[in-house]
């Protein structure tokens, strides 16, 4: 049950970050299958420069395709705390795909890109990660570029892993800079191995893999070189992980959370979806065994009128750590229908006060159990305040011809024991059915949320109702104490 804390104020006005796509149709360099949604922007991520909290960098997918990936990944930066944003031109953007200037010479010779991620190190260097893929063949790669000037320009692409095996697909990457050591940055994802030739640009859109271990690489010299990719957790045959994300603790320990999908199990944990994690106390050199957090009880999200699917972050847990010195607190959020008898997804929250070794019984932090809530994000401010953002359909009615969707924030100032009344980030509802259809109406498997001092910066994709020429845009705002 949600316990309500006293209200806190401060959602600012929305600022539109994205604009018109800067490349022409057909820039992929090969015939494509599926449907492209021009001028759509989805799946954003954001981070704040710890050396200058007015400097923010965000990333997103530009021109989403129905069957996987986008024409390109783009980035923008702010130098005034999110009030205004600049999108660097092509030629300055990292060329993670052909539409963004990728070529064999620069390492970005791919038809599409997906899963954008950005992270700042404590020295102010930013790292931008891409999963770059092809639709016409199975070639794909994990790529990274570094910026040393707050996102204004980006350096050459580094290839972390490139594979051209029809039985393999690397998926759902994330990257975390170590705020306790400026030399260290960690990248993690799941490597899906199929028993038949299923790996292609659409493999990322498919469900369960024959095998899906967690793989990891790191730089220990500020991006000058990266270690060979290696497995750090293997859930066994016919099981997989997805949604790997590393949080760094104040003592330098690493906690990698993921959704473990177990299809075969004769002992605990049983079949189904599970929030789980592994830990490292030596900067990723070695890792612990699996620690179970909770079952993940999503039932998915649909339009209540006709059961049309809405693609959400339903199998992607999100993690955040309290970075204050001496604390051992971690927080995880995910979608779960346990609070409604398995009828409607809500936002589940669990906390650890011992560095991830043990976890609290999940509670609901979304407000309206009469509707579906989805795609949560979580972060922690400098003063320890926790924020959780999410979408829901509170404004929607059966009589409405549109799927009216809002985006909310709720906060806790006591470590997640009680939560403030939710505050709306969207300035009125938008129609989710106007978003790109990629196995469901889609604004992203995740959305951005980052703290800047004691403020929070939500960075999310909202649909432009009824605008087929410009289906979605990325918006930012500030949530003040």
From TrEMBL:
Respond yes or no to whether keyword Oxidoreductase is given for this record: no
Q: Which keywords does the record carry?
A: Glycosidase, Hydrolase
State any single GO MF term. Answer: hydrolase activity, acting on glycosyl bonds
Report the top EC class in one word: hydrolase
Q: Quickly give the catalysed reaction.
A: Hydrolysis of alpha-(2->3)-, alpha-(2->6)-, alpha-(2->8)- glycosidic linkages of terminal sialic acid residues in oligosaccharides, glycoproteins, glycolipids, colominic acid and synthetic substrates
CDD domains in the record: Sialidase_non-viral (cd15482)
Q: Which InterPro entries match?
A: Sialidase_fam, Sialidase_sf, WD40/YVTN_repeat-like_dom_sf
Q: What is its EC number?
A: 3.2.1.18
Taxonomic superkingdom: Bacteria
What family does the entry list? Answer: Belongs to the glycosyl hydrolase 33 family.
Its name, as the record gives it, is exo-alpha-sialidase
């Amino acid at each position: 049950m949600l316990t309500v804390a006293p209200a806190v104020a401060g959602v600012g006005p929305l600022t539109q970050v994205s604009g018109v796509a800067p490349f022409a149709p057909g820039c992929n360099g090969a015939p494509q299958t599926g449907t492209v949604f021009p001028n759509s922007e989805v799946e954003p991520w954001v981070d704040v420069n710890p050396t200058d909290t007015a400097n923010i960098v965000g990333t997103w997918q530009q021109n989403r395709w129905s069957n996987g990936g986008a024409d390109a990944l783009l980035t923008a930066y702010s130098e005034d705390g999110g009030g205004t944003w600049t999108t660097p031109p092509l030629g300055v953007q990292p060329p993670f795909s052909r539409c963004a200037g990728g070529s064999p010479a620069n390492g970005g010779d791919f038809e599409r890109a997906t899963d954008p991620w950005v992270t700042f190190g404590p020295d102010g260097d930013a790292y931008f990660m891409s999963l770059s893929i092809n639709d016409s063949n199975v070639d794909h790669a994990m790529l990274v570029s570094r910026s040393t000037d707050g996102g204004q320009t980006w350096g050459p692409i580094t290839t972390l892993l490139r594979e051209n095996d029809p039985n393999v697909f690397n998926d759902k990457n994330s990257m975390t800079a170590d705020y306790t050591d400026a030399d260290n940055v960690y990248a993690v994802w799941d490597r899906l191995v199929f028993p038949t030739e299923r790996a292609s640009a659409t493999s990322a859109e498919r469900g369960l893999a024959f095998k899906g271990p967690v793989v990891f690489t790191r730089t220990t010299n500020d991006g000058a070189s990266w270690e060979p990719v290696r497995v750090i957790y293997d859930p066994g045959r016919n099981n997989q992980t997805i949604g790997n994300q590393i949080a760094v603790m104040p003592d330098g320990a690493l906690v990698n959370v993921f959704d473990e999908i177990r299809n075969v199990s004769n002992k605990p944990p049983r079949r189904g979806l599970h929030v789980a994690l592994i830990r490292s106390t030596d900067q990723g050199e070695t890792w612990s065994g699996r620690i179970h957090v909770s079952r993940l009880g999503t039932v998915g999200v649909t339009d209540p009128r006709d059961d049309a699917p809405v693609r959400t972050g339903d199998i992607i847990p999100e993690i955040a750590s309290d970075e204050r010195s001496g604390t051992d607190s971690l927080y995880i959020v995910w979608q779960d229908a346990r609070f409604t008898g398995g009828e409607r997804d809500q936002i589940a929250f669990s906390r650890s006060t011992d560095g991830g070794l043990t976890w609290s019984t999940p509670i609901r932090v979304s407000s309206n159990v009469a509707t579906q809530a989805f795609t949560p994000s979580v972060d922690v401010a400098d003063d320890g305040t926790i924020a959780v953002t999410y979408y829901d359909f509170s404004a929607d009615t059966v009589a409405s011809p549109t799927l009216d969707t809002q985006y909310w924030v709720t906060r806790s100032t006591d470590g997640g024991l009680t939560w403030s009344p939710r505050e709306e980030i969207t300035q009125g509802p938008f129609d989710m059915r106007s978003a790109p259809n990629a196995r469901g109406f889609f604004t992203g498997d995740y959305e951005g949320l980052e703290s800047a001092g004691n403020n929070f910066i939500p960075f999310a994709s909202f649909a432009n109702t009824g605008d087929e020429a410009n289906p979605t845009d990325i918006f930012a705002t500030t949530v003040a104490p």
